[in-house]
Recover the amino acids of this structure.
């Protein structure tokens, strides 16, 4: 299966920005819902953000409550790329960040791992003080 590939992880300063990228060479990329999840050591993987096509040229972006206002998900369909712009990073948000792609339409599935078929291997984000 096609595997999304993340990049951009690294060291972020507390309160500072960091942008992650994910390239997914799947057919009809623009029709896929794309999402970001994160998992810290010893904790379960959690949903961060997703972006879903709802009409031609129209996408819906949804976020976990904990990141609203600080994180923006976007996509560049011509390059099969989805981005996660993170602002005001917090120490507790250090984690492995994973990109996922899927064709599910149910909002509940799209906010959990069950809505996605393809997964990247993750990119690590650390936060310094």
């Amino acid at each position: 299966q096609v595997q999304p590939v993340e990049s951009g992880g690294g060291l972020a300063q507390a309160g500072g920005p960091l942008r992650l990228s994910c390239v997914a060479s799947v057919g009809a990329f623009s029709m896929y819902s794309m999402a970001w999840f994160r998992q810290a050591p010893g904790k379960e993987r959690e949903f961060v953000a997703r972006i879903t096509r709802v009409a031609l040229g129209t996408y819906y972006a949804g976020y976990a409550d904990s990141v609203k206002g600080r994180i923006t998900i976007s996509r560049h369909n011509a390059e099969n790329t989805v981005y996660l712009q993170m602002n005001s990073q917090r120490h507790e948000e250090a984690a492995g960040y994973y990109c996922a792609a899927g064709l599910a339409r149910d909002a509940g599935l799209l906010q959990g791992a069950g809505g996605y078929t393809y997964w990247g291997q993750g990119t690590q984000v650390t936060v310094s003080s």
In short: The chain has a mean pLDDT of 94. The longest helix spans residues 107-110. The helical segments are 107-110.
